[in-house]
Design a protein that fits this description.
The chain contains seven helices and eight strands. The protein has 264 residues and is α+β, with helices and mostly antiparallel strands. The protein has an eight-stranded antiparallel β-sheet, covered by helices on one side. The longest helix is centred in the middle third of the chain and has 63 residues.
């Protein structure tokens, strides 16, 4: 059997199924007229094709589906069937593109998930770093205030001023240790809880007027110790006082006096 005959015989299945091009079909039919072997092959395959056609129950499509299909072919013209037959092999590259697109989409989704996870980890790391930086800054400030407070206690010019509670806070008391060169250590107790949006402000009262030493936020028991850096050129105090002021403090006292003390 020649290679040419084998190639032609290999077209028998396509011939039976009606999938040969017009010129291929004409050539194959011409070969059938002279080749008993190929004619027998076609008869055998037709029997198989007929059996397959009846192997599953037939179903009549809904009328609206038939109308849509016929309408589509009518709109495309009489060459629609031939055009579809010629273009049928194009589904292969389309399928490859579809598979590639799905693969790229899945990879992009996984990559986006990883990026989101890394962004979350980075945000947590930055937050932890910020908290650590704040804690370190607070520790440095506390160390500096402690050293400054120790400097006040050891200052040769340190003066003690005891403060008594005023009508707004009769149970409150405080003590100020003040050095012109080194500042003030202020300790308070039994102050009432702060109202919302308010703060206690400590004043060094001089003959020229009150000078703000700083702000005081007591703990839950109404007490606390804080270091204030007062101006080195401040006049000698005639009193030390505590008032209740708006949050952030003011340049001059406006609220009620909660503590007041005179130098010994």
């Amino acid at each position: 059997m020649s290679a040419a005959h084998t190639d032609v015989k290999g077209q028998a299945g396509a011939y039976v199924l009606g999938s040969l091009e017009a010129d291929e079909r004409t050539a194959f039919e011409a070969h059938l007229a002279t080749c008993a072997e190929c004619a027998a092959e076609v008869r055998s395959l037709r029997g198989v094709a007929d059996a397959l056609a009846h192997a599953v129950p037939s179903r009549t499509p809904r009328p609206e589906l038939r109308a849509r299909v016929l309408g589509a072919f009518a709109a495309q013209g009489p060459r629609a069937a031939a055009s579809v037959a010629r273009e049928r092999p194009g589904w292969l590259p389309l399928a490859a593109v579809l598979v590639l697109t799905l693969g790229v989409g899945a990879y992009a989704a996984r990559l986006q998930t990883r990026v989101t996870d890394l962004e979350d980890r980075l945000a947590q790391a930055l937050l932890q770093a910020a908290v650590a930086d704040r804690a370190a800054a607070d520790a440095r400030q506390a160390t500096s205030d402690l050293q400054s407070a120790m400097g006040v206690l050891a200052a040769p010019d340190v003066a003690r001023i005891d403060l008594a509670g005023q009508p707004a806070a009769p149970q409150a008391s405080a003590r100020a240790l003040w050095s012109r060169a080194r500042g003030m250590v202020f300790t308070a107790s039994n102050l009432p809880p702060l109202p919302a949006g308010r703060v206690y402000q400590v004043w060094v009262v001089t003959a020229q007027g009150p000078v703000s030493a700083g702000l005081l936020t007591p703990d839950a028991a109404g007490g606390g110790t804080v270091y204030f850096s007062t101006p080195p050129d401040i006049p000698a105090p005639t009193a030390v006082a505590v008032t209740l002021e708006p949050a952030g403090g003011l340049s001059a006292p406006t609220g009620a006096f909660y503590l007041m003390g005179l130098p010994a």
